[in-house]
Amino acid sequence: PIGGPKVAEIGPKATAYKHRDAKWILHYKHQWRPGDAQAFTVMMAHHANLVRDLDTALPCAAFYNYLDNTLSCAADNDAWLAAHFSDVPRMKQIKTENDPSGLFRSRL
Hints:
Blueprint: H1 5-8, H2 37-55, H3 77-84, H4 88-98
């Protein structure tokens, strides 16, 4: 797994990050000149197609530091949260208990 045996010793629900058994992490990087709207449009379409095609062969899982608000495998907000985090009900409970007025915005 990524990070070696010490990372794998931590259970998948011990922290918010559940993908401790991952063998690979894919990192996408698209680059264009600032202000080039056409290149931006082309790159974003390329990214959407790439992710959509990879989603047919890979699990719907994501690393929060590589945030992608357009995960094609996540049909709704709960699926998006489940793709990123280990115990979404627990996180929602913690958010509700510690931020009852919703001061800190999040997808929870």
